[in-house]
Amino acid sequence: MKALLLIDIQNDFMPGGALAVTGGDEIIPIVNKLHPQFDLVVATQDWHPADHGSFAANHPGKNVFEQTDLDGLPQTLWPVHCVQNTGGALFAPALDTRRIARVFTKGMNPRIDSYSGLYDNGHRASTGMGEWLKTQGVQELHVAGVATDYCVKFTVLDALKEGFSVTVLTSACRGVNLQPGDVDRALAEILAAGAVIQR
Length: 199
Hints:
By secondary structure, the protein is α/β, with parallel strands linked by helices. It is built from 4 helices and 8 strands. Helix content is 20%, strand content 24%.
C-alpha cells in the first residue's frame, strides 16, 4: 500500500505565520489534488508547549536562528511557533483534511525538538507513526509539506531507516533555506540515502 504523508502544513509555516516558509501556501492546491491518488493520507503536526526549549524566547540573551545546546543535542533556536491549541498550530484552512486518516503530533517534550514525524531529534522516543503505518500495510510513502530542509528531510531519512520506500514530491514541498543552498543540500542527502526525488 502507498500512503501520502503531509508534513506540518500549519498556519505558522504559511506566509504571515510565526515561522513562515516562503511559498508554503503554494503547495496546498497541489497536495489537495494528490489525495485521490493514494490509499491512505496521514499528516504530521508540530504541537509544542509554550515552554519548548527550541524557542529563542525561552533562552534569555539568545536570538532567533542562533545555535545552542538542548539537552545534549545541537539546536537551532526558532521563533515561537505551533504552540498547542493556538491558531498557528492549526492546519492551513485551504488544506483538505477530509481524507487524513491519522495525525501524528510531534515536539511535545519541551526538552527535545522533533523535526521528524517518526522520532524526536535524539531518537529517544517514537511518535508511533512508523509502527502504525506498518500495521496498515504501508510500504511506500510519498512525502509533501514543509520544510524541505528540516521536517521533510528528517522524516524521510527516518522512514528510509524504518524500511519504507520514499518518494519526495518536490513540487509539493517548500524549504526554509536559512543558509543559501540548504534545500538543495537536503535533497542531495535524502537522494543519497535512497529516496526518490520526483520534481
